[in-house]
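Recap from last week: sequence in, structure out.
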Amino acid sequence: MRILFAFFILFSNVYSQNIDEKFYAANKLYNNTKYLEGIEVYENILSEGWESSNLYYNLGNAYFRQNQIGQSIWAYHKALKMDPRNLDLTHNLEIVNARIKDRIILPDEFFLVELYVKIKSRFTLKEWLMIGGITIFITVILFLLSKIYIFNNFILERSILFLIILVTIEHGIILDRFFDENDNKLGIIIDNEVDAYSGPFYGDNSILFKINEGTIVRLSQLQKNWLEIILLDGNRAWIPLEKIRFL
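Predicted structure tokens:
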């Protein structure tokens, strides 16, 4: 067992070192303006099952330099899931989103809904779990203190009540973030002017409209190499599977 464990540790270290070397090589290619070569190495790292916010961020920058807007937006969104408070990442995503042709602009949401979304997106799911755990711990400590004291402490009781409400809100956010993290029904169009068909088949008469790269769509159903999508405005259509990357 010890030999097996030692072999596992050794293999993990070698694998990690190999990934670091590839990541360094990709960054070097990017800095030398060899963006396509850098993209190939970044994508190769992803194909090996390793990912990080820095990897997606650099990949997004490389795709942007190649004017591949859809791929860039996809990479930035993947990075944002891991590092939601990265201001450079948010700034770059705003810039590249502005370059989407004929993008669908929805009406502004109610300010409370917008505020909730900002607060929810401020932290990752793991961070929200940690925040929720710390709040529960503090609540338990204060509750025990309230039982130890013979006299009733008004401030202590009100603090416990406030923390109970806070814990309830935090765990509601945690549940919402969990569903967001496990929502595999969103994707980014990665090609420009993609023909959207009325069904999973080709034909000039079946083209409903065109979708530009960078557009976020909801996935409906898969049929062989075709995918039915739903746009933000509610329109449905079928596109070839290779025209989209899943978030």
